[in-house]
Write a structure and sequence with these properties.
Layout (H helix, E strand, L loop, with lengths): L5 H8 L8 H6 L1 H24 L3 H12 L24 H12 L6 H14 L2 E13 L5 E14 L11 E12 L20 E7 L5 E5 L4 E5 L11 H10 L4 E11 L2 E9 L12 E6 L4 E9 L6 E12 L17 E2 L6 H18 L7 E2 L20 H11 L14 H8 L1 H10 L6 E4 L11 E6 L2 E2 L5 E2 L3 E6 L4 E5 H7 L6
Parallel strand pairs: 6-12
Antiparallel strand pairs: 1-2, 1-11, 2-3, 3-4, 4-5, 5-6, 7-8, 8-9, 9-10, 10-11, 13-14, 14-15, 15-18, 16-17, 18-19
Helix pairs in contact: 1-3, 5-6, 5-7, 8-11, 9-11
Length: about 500
């Protein structure tokens, strides 16, 4: 029997199991640990509830009796692991789990509200939402000097039972506009109007259940493919860490906000404060508006509190829609024809082409590599250079330099093609093309031809983000890097080692 789904684990922990799950749990340490955690959470909530409102015991027993007759849905519910991926925006499902923290601390209705929430969350099989963000950059005197508006739209659909190991279907798109502002500009995060003009940043990502995903940087002019996303991989995302903190009850209610109308419906508002609990460190109180009829959130807003002397960061998640149907092509992964595919190679033949091209350049140049230093555009310039080296790897220019170093100068000659050295340079073209494509994304790849030569066997010349596969065929797409040393040895290393080898890439 496969491991239990979250709703099955919840049913077992809450005493709603009819006996079919217990044998598996007794033989499965992972499921037993999860059930134990859920039971401890339920016991803690029950203890708080009993202390704050003894009179609620009777109503709780009545509600549990009603819950025991509720038929569980055949389709697996959304799990706490699947509510966000890729870091584009805080998932609206985060608001759903935020309510668990509210219910754990609100006098008089903690456990009954939690039980209603369990029912609501386990029914969720899809959702969509929009996020409106505003970053206001401040002068040293505190006056606004620039503004960055960001609009994101995210939608997600749960996998079916046969594909429960996968993350599900996801499509997310973010556009941002940055410009100087005047004192008369309105910089509130609640402004949902779409800015005019071309965005300064535009990214989209699509993941279809069990299939390779695609991430498209429209403003950068490139895209790359990534492996299928497994359900457990969502846990490495910062938002997943936030949800786990909420699940563990680290936040506490600050106050109730009363009611207001959202999209023609009455909503109840709450403010929760996580203080300095990791990973909410740096965030101020979170404002949530809940639909009392469905026990699902309708709106969520929060503010980043750190570095308030430099920037004001506000976000509002709205237009949250639960359990919706999507068009058939909503999660289709299609490569844009007019953009560059910057996906790093995984095939050893392609990697050998890169190594051969760099080795040939070093032979022709007398022991050096192309004097190019690609870095993230946001990094500071190296003060050691009076004139910064090129920040773009252009395979055509590198090939031209190789021809010049080999003595092939002036207009092309027909007899060059018979020269063995010229043939070697032509054979190096595929490797140079790979470098041109991979290094266009200077956040996920880098080249240090200025500092590193063939004699630097322990220094990294070239690197890119890469996944790794274990002996069971499980692919981990996060936290690994392919590195090429000065002597062109290559290996895949974990993030901890990479940060030691290439500190300038992780600063």
């Amino acid at each position: 029997m496969a491991c239990l789904t979250p709703e099955q684990l919840s049913a077992l922990a809450l005493g709603l199991d009819d006996g079919e799950f217990a044998p598996h749990v007794s033989a499965c340490p992972d499921c037993q640990a999860k059930v134990d955690n859920l039971r401890r959470l339920s016991q803690q909530l029950a203890a708080v509830h009993a202390m704050l409102d003894r009179r609620h015991t009777a109503s709780r027993a009545q509600l549990l009796s009603q819950l025991s007759h509720v038929e569980r849905p055949s389709r697996p519910a959304a799990t706490w692991r699947r509510f966000a991926y890729g870091g584009i925006g805080l998932s609206s499902a985060a608001a759903a789990l935020l309510l668990l923290a509210f219910f754990a601390t609100t006098p008089g209705n903690q456990l009954s509200a939690m039980e209603r929430m369990v029912m609501a969350v386990r029914e969720v099989t899809s959702y969509s939402f929009k996020n409106f963000g505003t970053d206001t950059y401040l002068d040293p005197d505190g006056k606004p000097k620039a503004i960055r508006r960001e609009i994101s739209s995210i939608c997600w659909r749960a996998p079916d039972q046969a594909n429960h190991k996968w993350f599900g279907d996801l499509h997310a798109e973010t556009k941002a506009w940055k410009r100087p502002i005047s004192a008369d500009d309105n910089v509130a995060a609640n402004d949902s109007a779409t800015p005019t003009g071309e965005p300064t940043f535009h990214i989209a990502e699509t993941h279809s259940t069990g299939k390779p995903g695609i991430v498209i940087f429209y403003t950068g002019g490139y895209y790359f493919w990534c492996p299928p996303v497994r359900a457990v991989e969502g846990l490495v995302d910062n938002h997943m860490a936030k949800l786990r903190a909420v699940q563990q009850g680290q936040g506490q209610i600050v106050r109730e906000l009363g009611n207001k109308t959202i999209d023609g419906r009455e909503a109840s508002g709450y403010v929760v404060d996580f203080e300095d609990a990791v990973p909410f460190q740096g965030y101020g109180p979170v404002e949530v508006w809940l639909d009392p009829q469905t026990d699902l959130p309708m709106e969520l807003s929060f503010k980043w509190n750190e570095h308030t002397d430099k920037m004001i960061d506000e976000s509002r998640i709205t237009d949250i829609r639960w359990n919706i149907d999507f068009p058939p092509d909503q999660f289709a992964t299609v490569a844009p024809a007019d953009l560059i595919d910057s996906t790093p190679p995984a095939d050893e033949h392609d990697i050998s082409q890169i190594v051969s091209a760099l080795k040939l350049f070093a032979e022709l140049s007398g022991g050096r590599y192309p004097r190019i230093r690609t870095t993230d555009r946001d990094q500071k310039h190296d003060p050691a250079f009076k004139t910064d080296p090129p920040n773009t790897f252009d395979g055509e220019l590198v090939r031209s330099e190789m021809l010049r170093l080999a003595g092939f100068t002036g207009p092309p000659q027909s007899d060059w093609s018979r020269d063995p050295k010229y043939q070697q340079i032509e054979a190096a073209t595929p490797g140079l093309d790979w470098l041109t494509r991979v290094l266009i994304d200077s956040y996920r790849a880098g080249f240090f031809g200025v500092e590193v030569g063939p004699q630097d066997k322990d220094k990294v010349l070239l690197w890119w983000m890469a996944g790794t596969e274990d002996d069971k065929g499980n692919y981990d797409a996060d936290g690994f890097y392919r590195v090429f040393y000065g002597d062109l040895r290559t290996e895949t290393v974990p993030e901890e080692k990479f940060s030691e080898l290439v500190p300038q890439a992780t600063e």
